[in-house]
Structures are given as C-alpha cells and as structure tokens.
Design goal:
alpha/beta, about 15% strand, 3-stranded parallel β-sheet, about 45% helix, binds farnesyl diphosphate
C-alpha cells in the first residue's frame, strides 16, 4: 500500500492524512476482494524499518491501528472474515498488542475470507526467526516443515502481489513465500487505488502463464 505520503504531499497535507485515506481505501478494496471471491488478502501495513520514521508519523499510524483493531475490524469479523497479524508485535504499545490478541483469537466458523496484516513485519526477520525456532526445536527442516515456522503457516503462498506507488521492488515482503508469486506494479498511489484497477489487474493475472519452473 505504497504512496500514501506522496498522495498527502500533493494535497499539501501531513503524511498522516495520506495514511488515513489509505486505510479507507484498504477497507473498500478488501470488501471488493472478498466480493470477487478472493479468499486470502494480505497487506503490508508496517515494516520493521517503518519504526525508524519520524515519531509523529509512527504515532499517527499507531492511532490508526488502535482505532481499527478496537472498533472497525469487528465489522469484518461480523462478516465472517478471519484476521491474522504477521510480524514482531513486541514493540507495539500494550493496548494495541491486546487488541491484536483479541482479534486474532476470535474463532470464526467457516470464514468467508482471511485478511492478513503484516505489521512490524520484515521478510528477512521472519526467515531468521524461523531458522532459530527450528534449531531450538532440534529439527532439520524441509520446505514443508520450514513453512510451518513462518508467520504465514497454514496460508497458501500469494498468487499475486500488487505494489502501488510506482516502485518496482519487494521491500522485504514475504521473501520466502513470493518465490512463484506473480508481481504487478502500478504507479497509482495507494489512496487512489480503485475496484476498476483491481479488476484490470486480475484480468491481466488471468492471462499469465504460470509454469512454476516446469514446461507445460
Ligand atoms: C507506505 O506509503 C505505507 C505505509 C508505510 C503505511 C501503510 C499503512 C496504512 C495504509 C494503514 C494501515 C492501517 C491498518 C489499520 C491496517 P508511504 O507512506 O511510504 O508513501 P510514500 O512512498 O508516498 O511516502
């Protein structure tokens, strides 16, 4: 969800204004995804590196997490969406940690969809943690057992990763899981991302030839 800061700058507003607009876009695109029959939707909301942003911006993002985890996300749960949080939660304020814990532990029977939020997440950090956890458990891993040490355990690898905001890089997102993901980069700034563009991207995805390294 890249481009919130630039979107705000264009409007001569603080970066937090862009993040607020970004989260509104997120809620609407999320609904579109589930309506379109996409079962798993994952977003990169806060990287391990984002802790180094100016304190005023970090605080604004924490306020958004607080509001959404304590209020708005209950509406998703009512719609039978299971919510998972991926990342190192240790640095988040206690009230946010507690709200995340409550949301993650809400059991949902026969979920309509799964919404994964990467927060305090870094792909390298996830891999290193998984290696250390496997060593501690005294287990020699294979691809299947290694995956069970990742935050994403039980969730299929992403079929498609969309990055908004014009940069063409992965920036530490799902490094292990993206091995065969299709990538799509758009210049659209995240707050301007629309259902129409999502559908265009899905149509583009549908005509791609996914061979997973094999010959068809
Ligand atoms: C990157 O754009 C975006 C982020 C670092 C934050 C994204 C977070 C949200 C949209 C809020 C998520 C909230 C919840 C509750 C899940 P940028 O700020 O780096 O944009 P720029 O590249 O234009 O500066």
């Amino acid at each position: 969800m890249d481009g919130n800061g630039r979107w705000a700058k264009k409007r001569v507003q603080p970066r937090s204004f862009g993040h607020k607009a970004g989260v509104r876009t997120l809620m609407s695109i999320l609904e579109d995804c589930f309506d379109l029959g996409i079962k798993y939707v994952s977003v990169y909301a806060f990287s391990t590196e984002n802790w180094n942003r100016p304190q005023v911006e970090v605080d604004a993002l924490m306020d958004l997490f607080r509001t959404y985890f304590t209020k708005q996300f209950s509406k998703l749960i009512e719609k039978k969406i299971k919510i998972n949080v991926w990342g190192d939660k240790s640095k988040f304020p206690d009230d946010i940690k507690n709200a995340i814990h409550e949301i993650e532990n809400t059991a949902i029977n026969d979920p309509k969809g799964v919404f994964n939020i990467a927060m305090g997440y870094g792909g390298r950090n996830e891999i290193i943690k998984a290696v250390n956890d496997a060593i501690k458990a005294g287990i020699e891993v294979d691809e299947k057992t290694f995956a069970s040490y990742l935050y994403t355990t039980g969730i299929p690898d992403p079929d498609l990763i969309i990055r908004t905001g014009g940069e063409m890089r992965i920036s530490n997102f799902l490094l292990y899981q993206c091995a065969y993901s299709e990538l799509y980069f758009t210049k659209t700034l995240w707050p301007d991302f629309s259902k129409e563009e999502l559908i265009e991207i899905l149509e583009n995805y549908n005509i791609r030839d996914r061979r997973f390294g094999k010959v068809k």
